[in-house]
Specification:
Layout: H1 30-36, E1 43-47, H2 58-68, E2 73-77, E3 96-99, H3 106-110, H4 136-147, E4 153-155, H5 157-161, E5 167-169, E6 174-176, H6 179-183, E7 187-189, H7 194-205, E8 219-223, E9 231-234, H8 235-238, H9 261-283, H10 288-292, E10 306-309, H11 313-318, H12 320-332, E11 342-346, E12 349-353, H13 362-369, H14 387-392, E13 395-397, E14 399-400, H15 411-415, E15 420-421, H16 424-437, E16 444-445, E17 447-449, H17 463-468, H18 488-498, E18 505-506, H19 514-517, H20 521-530, E19 535-541, H21 545-551, H22 556-572, E20 578-585, H23 592-604, E21 613-614, H24 622-629, H25 650-660, H26 668-677, H27 681-684, H28 698-714, H29 731-740, H30 748-752, H31 754-757
Parallel strand pairs: 1-2, 1-3, 3-4, 4-7, 9-10, 10-11, 13-17, 16-18, 19-20, 20-21
Antiparallel strand pairs: 5-6, 7-8, 8-12, 11-12, 14-15
Length: about 750
């Protein structure tokens, strides 16, 4: 059982400014402040998004949440970051600046997976790109400090949350230190921030120095010394990453120079003994009788004052094995019921990362989503279209969190594994609000969902397991026996939602976790019969066991079961409906041969994908660790850990993406050349149904030769290509590499029979 917080979210005494009541929109100008009778703002929120007063926009949620606590909250949306002037337009905040890049990480918002600049931005009026800077949290924070040096700066949101410790940065291709160091902010709040932000706000309001606020869950801060009263253990004692330097004593001040070798060697045994004691105590199952024992609160609980020393920033920057190890430890410490603080040294200072905040209760979730949102963009934008708003204006978020643990996704790192659901009454009331407030509402609810459509009210059936579990996923490699897979609450919600007067249709647009859905066929029937608008998107991501294991996704057996049920219930309902599967190319663990197998599956099932997503290494995701280190950090990291094949470089990543779009003639040349070098030309090039692409025509051959000759003419040395710069890479080298991975050439019979021998979960 996850412990309850000391104070519930809406039980804090209101700040004195509650007498001003709520505002139609949080003010974004001095004029609006004057109309509200404000002489100043208590808190000013700075965001990279346009201000849309809707519960799907983070700044609206945070702003309304703080307003409900009695604070006067202003918003500076998409400011001109070239100077401090735009950050001074609402005046000096009485308490602090709150800074976020917006609903998306600013780098992912600005650049494609190929690092090309995007020229649009769905969170900006008229979809205009370039309205926020790269690494927006850093820039905004520094401008706030320039505007008012003595005002604290609190950073949060997805960008800060995923950069809270040392992390691999895809755009600079290096390991960067915690964002707190570069942002010069005073404190970082990660995850869905309502609980920690409300506590921090009230403590600053009562006069606490922000530098002294070190005990709030869900926060990170910089310090020179470990907190008094805490004992440190070395992370490498919990999960030894093979042969490494001697482990420093946890009793040595982390800010001082490291102890000599003899002291470190002597410390190893001490550390291991202490760890054994801690692990033994921590591993003891929590008995319900302990909650009834009146003396329980007085018992010594040393694990509650133990922190974990991660390898230093300098170590993870220079040593990929230690980076993989640190990532593994980080992902084990995400359960609010058992997580320990994490400490990581950066030079002469350390970042202290407190355990995650406790999840919100159903009543608290109802309170957050029941705040007085206008549900439309601020009037200042006039008739301008904001694509992100248009997409979600009639959708409803029914839950938070995800226990899927997909390695390429950062939802777990941000929102946590524990599902936080709203009540039916709260969701139905939001439908009424949409009917009343959304202009031009047609009676169609575009989505009832969240990170996953069908995890509503699902959670661990065992309070003891829930409080101590460190597994990264509840559904991989198989569904945990403790997990509740009963979809009855979701079915009940769907039925009540579509029965609301004036509602013509309730669609499900969030991705459905089909391995969970097949556990409750009644849910699949309800979905197919009433809530699909012709197409339902699901995400197998791949067909091959190697990549799926590195994604922590189920095998295609679950997909096949779901498709059978979906087709059956669609037919019974008299509807012609289709599944739209999504796939990822170039994911860590994927070889060229894996992509060929996936393309053949697509062709056999007559799928022609219009859009393909190349793997995007987002900060802190498990798959990003695999990408950077090429080490299997999903298992204990050791000196002999499995090496993971990783498609890197523009040439191979483009090849994988091209193979997924095998039907596009523009991709045929690169596919032909690749599979010829792999020794599969006879099997896969031609007009047979078992072939992937057709043979080269005379016209294509002439065009290719002409292009090759043109390249030769432009080459300064008269070569057709520059030495060592073959257009599609050294395929002999790649073929040899694939051979080492056990992907040798196979005959026509082996290729055609691969399905029979392929394993599924």
């Amino acid at each position: 059982m996850i412990p309850l917080p000391d104070v519930k979210l809406f039980d804090y005494p209101k700040y004195w400014a509650e007498c001003y009541d709520t505002s139609p929109f949080l003010p974004i100008s001095r004029k609006e402040m004057d109309e509200l009778g404000w002489d100043s703002c208590d808190i000013i929120l700075v965001t990279g998004d346009a201000y849309v007063d809707h519960p799907s926009f983070g700044m609206a949620v945070i702003g309304r949440m703080l307003e409900s606590q009695g604070f006067r909250v202003g918003i500076i949306a998409q400011p001109d970051w070239q100077s401090k002037d735009a950050f001074m337009k609402l005046g000096k905040p009485n308490l602090y600046f709150g800074v976020t890049s917006g609903n998306m990480d600013s780098m992912i918002n600005r650049y494609t997976a190929e690092r090309r600049i995007r020229h649009d931005d769905a969170y900006t009026p008229n979809n205009e790109g370039g309205k926020r800077p790269d690494r927006a949290v850093l820039v905004y924070s520094q401008r706030c400090k320039e505007a008012y040096k003595d005002v604290p700066v609190v950073i949060g949101g997805i960008e800060a949350s995923l950069r809270r410790i040392s992390h691999y940065d895809y755009w600079s291709e290096k390991v960067r230190r915690s964002i707190l160091f570069d942002a010069k902010a005073d404190i970082l709040i990660y995850g869905n921030a309502e609980r920690p932000l409300v506590e921090v706000s009230h403590r600053i309001a009562r006069g606490d120095n922000i530098g002294d606020i070190t005990d709030v869950r869900g926060t990170a801060f910089l310090t020179k010394h470990a907190l008094p009263g805490w004992k440190g253990i070395d992370s490498r004692s919990l999960d030894k990453p093979g042969k490494i330097d001697p482990i420093p004593s946890p009793y040595i001040d982390t800010t001082k120079t490291e102890a000599c070798s003899s002291e470190q060697e002597n410390a190893v045994n001490i550390v291991e003994e202490e760890v054994k004691k801690d692990i033994t105590k921590t591993a003891q199952p929590i008995q319900l009788s302990e909650y009834r024992n009146k003396t329980w609160a007085k018992k010594d609980k040393p694990w509650e004052t133990t922190y974990i020393n991660l390898p230093t920033y300098e170590q993870v920057r220079d040593n990929k094995r230690l980076y993989a190890h640190a990532s593994r430890i980080f992902h084990q410490e995400v359960n609010p019921g058992s997580a320990k603080p994490l400490v990581q040294k950066h030079g002469d200072r350390i970042i202290w990362l407190n355990p995650p905040a406790y999840p919100l209760s159903e009543a608290e979730m109802d309170g957050v989503f029941g705040l007085p949102y206008a549900r439309v963009p601020h009037p200042i934008y006039g008739d301008a279209k904001i694509p992100a708003y248009d997409m979600i204006k009639t959708s409803i978020n029914i839950m938070r969190g995800c226990f899927g643990g997909c390695t390429f996704c950062s939802i777990t790192e941000h929102e946590g594994r524990i599902i936080q659901s709203r009540s039916e009454e709260s969701i139905l009331q939001e439908i009424e609000d949409i009917k009343e407030k959304v202009p031009g509402f047609t009676g169609v609810i575009s989505d009832l969902g969240g990170p996953t459509a069908n995890m509503y009210k699902l959670r661990c059936k065992s309070p003891k397991a829930e409080a101590t579990c460190r597994k990264p996923s509840c559904v991989w490699p198989t569904i945990c026996g403790h997990l509740d897979t009963d979809h009855s609450p979701t079915i009940s919600l769907y039925r009540k939602a579509r029965a609301v007067k004036g509602i013509k249709k309730v669609l499900i647009a969030s991705g459905v976790r089909y391995d969970l859905a097949v556990e409750d066929p009644e849910y699949v029937k309800e979905l197919a019969t009433h809530h699909v608008g012709g197409y339902l998107k699901i995400a197998p991501e791949h067909t091959e066991e190697g990549p799926l294991n590195k994604m922590m996704k189920p095998g295609m057996g679950s997909y096949d079961k779901f498709k059978v049920l979906f087709d059956k219930y669609s037919k019974e309902a008299g509807k012609k409906q289709f599944l739209i599967p999504y796939f990822i190319s170039a994911h860590p663990g994927t070889t060229d041969m894996d992509m060929i197998h996936l393309a053949m599956w697509l062709k056999e099932n007559d799928f022609k994908l219009d859009q393909v997503q190349n793997f995007y290494p987002s900060p802190l995701a498990n798959a990003t660790t695999l990408y950077h280190t090429e080490i299997d950090s999903l298992r204990n990291v050791r000196h002999d850990s499995e090496s993971v094949p990783v498609p890197k470089g523009t040439i191979q990543r483009r090849l994988h993406k091209a193979i997924l779009r095998y039907h596009d003639p523009a991709n045929w040349p690169i596919i032909r050349e690749a599979i010829t070098k792999m020794g599969l030309g006879k099997q896969l090039i031609g007009s047979k149904p078992t072939c992937l692409v057709p043979a080269e025509t005379r016209g294509e051959e002439n065009l290719r030769l002409n292009r090759s000759q043109a390249k030769g003419k432009n080459n300064a040395k008269g070569n057709k290509t520059s030495p060592g710069q073959k257009r599609y890479g050294n395929h002999k080298t790649q073929a040899a590499k694939n051979g080492k991975q056990g992907l040798t050439r196979f005959s026509d019979n082996q290729f055609n029979d691969r399905k029979k021998s392929k394993k599924t979960h």
